[in-house]
Write a structure and sequence with these properties.
Length: 468
């Protein structure tokens, strides 16, 4: 029988996704905590010329109805950046927090935006900050602001960093310690992140643990990962490695204020592990959970109001700009930066395939993989990343529409592109469009669903209305 939990001591949890619904429905004795990444339920829409976030209220209500206690773990407004989100995230975020009533809220100690020539630009990936005293000051002020938004204690996640350590920066453990102490925040100790850092040549996990204040650890994250280009990736891609589970079992008894132990897996990897595999992971984590100290945790520490100077913010922003410039440059870069380049591009390609499934399939089935990749690569190099798959897809659709020669070279591409652009326009801008086809659209789309070119179809006239 698992130990009962009450108050802010929650137990073993998972990051929620619909694919894991049957596990959550089994009840709190199986999984006690449902952790929500709120931005996964938001989409960007443009109304009266202004972009804003729209929350999927149905999905949020469904999650709120789960029997588990709730945690909120942000993935879109990271705490290390010098540039705030230009959209109003405060209103939807506070709405999620008020509905789910988590005892604390957490976010990544990363950055994802910078100021470019065209204004605020999305970096395309959660990126690691420069670990400097100036960054400590900026992160602490950001945490203080975030705490005011959510009205709860705030914890930051110990991040993964694929770059090599620098002599002019604080080591990982000292950086995490200084941010926690200056801000009065808690820590989400992501042991897989730290393990990746060690495997990839940064500080050893045990050295990091010797420097951070373990009494500030409120939550532990564990996950599986992948290997790519000689690096261990924090991919949340399956079972937790046995070595990492052993490390977790060694660390948990040293965390006097531990309140939750969370397993992370991305939705796309749930079928591979299987629900039985998920249950096995949870059972092992409950065994580790029972190793925590017997004493009740201390109250959350008092918030610390702090301020970063304009000079400190300027220093942090220069470091962010330098990293983003290195990611977008074609010149030499250290291996870790080259890996981030690849990860950004792969995520953008995945967004295009998601938002323009039929269009990208039409290109592939006619032009082939090499030529299609050249078209996509040209777009990626000419345009900065966008914040969501829908906006990324819409920008690529506009780019393709400016290439009439390319469109004419791919049978039916013009109408396929117009159709998918109309779908995006309805979702993003709330506008309706009538798409004229000169063949049966069902024949075209069925062929593309099967991964083949539509071929020659009998001419026919069809009008398809795409409405909001």
């Amino acid at each position: 029988m698992h130990r009962d939990t009450d108050g802010s001591v929650l137990g073993v949890g998972m990051v929620y996704c619909p694919a894991l619904g049957p596990v959550f429905e089994a009840g709190p004795d199986v999984v006690a905590v449902a952790e929500l990444e709120p931005q996964t339920l938001w989409r960007t829409v443009c109304s009266e010329g202004k972009w804003r976030y729209r929350v999927d209220g149905w999905a949020l209500d469904a999650m709120a109805a789960l029997p588990q206690r709730k945690l909120v773990h942000g993935v879109g407004q990271p705490l290390a950046g010098s540039i705030d989100d230009p959209l109003d995230y405060r209103t939807p975020l506070r709405g999620v927090v008020d509905l789910l009533d988590p005892p604390w809220v957490s976010e990544h100690l990363s950055f994802v935006r910078t100021a470019g020539a065209s204004g605020i630009e999305h970096a395309g990936f959660l990126l690691p900050p420069a670990q400097t005293p100036e960054q400590v000051a900026v992160a602490a002020e950001n945490i203080d602001d975030y705490r005011r938004v959510v009205g709860r204690p705030v914890a930051f996640e110990t991040g993964v960093d694929y770059r090599a350590p620098r002599e002019d920066e604080l080591d990982d453990g000292v950086f995490f310690r200084d941010v926690a102490e200056r801000s009065g925040s808690g820590i989400v100790l992501d042991l897989h992140n730290l393990w990746c850092n060690e495997v990839n040549g940064r500080g050893a996990v045990r050295d990091v643990l010797s420097r951070i204040p373990l009494d500030r650890v409120w939550e532990v994250h564990v996950a599986g990962g992948d290997d790519l280009d000689g690096y261990r990736l924090d991919a949340h891609s399956g079972a937790v490695p046995g070595e990492l589970l052993d490390l977790t079992a060694d660390v948990v008894p040293r965390l006097p204020n531990l309140r939750a132990l969370t397993f992370e897996i991305t939705p796309s990897h749930v079928p591979h592990l299987g629900l039985d595999g998920v249950h096995a992971q949870l059972e092992r984590l409950w065994q580790i959970w029972d190793l925590r100290p017997d004493a009740a945790p201390e109250p959350f520490p008092a918030a610390i109001a702090t301020h970063a100077s304009a000079a400190e913010r300027a220093t942090v922003h220069r470091a962010e700009r330098n990293l983003v410039a290195a990611l977008r440059g074609a010149g030499p870069a250290e291996p870790g930066v080259r890996l981030y380049r690849r990860l950004v591009d792969e995520q953008r390609r995945a967004h295009l395939a998601q938002a323009l499934r039929y269009t990208t399939t039409a290109l592939l089935t006619t032009l082939g993989a090499v030529a299609t990749e050249a078209v996509i690569a040209e777009h990626l190099s000419a345009h900065p990343p966008e914040m969501t798959p829908g906006v990324e897809g819409y920008r690529f659709a506009m780019y393709l529409a400016s290439r009439p020669g390319l469109i004419d070279a791919v049978p039916h591409l013009r109408q396929v592109l117009e159709f998918e652009t109309a779908l995006l326009r309805a979702a993003l801008f709330g506008t309706s469009t009538v798409v004229e086809w000169d063949v049966d659209p069902v024949g075209v789309l069925d062929a593309l669903d099967e991964g083949r070119a539509p071929g020659v179809l009998e001419p026919q006239s069809y009008s398809v209305s795409v409405e909001i």
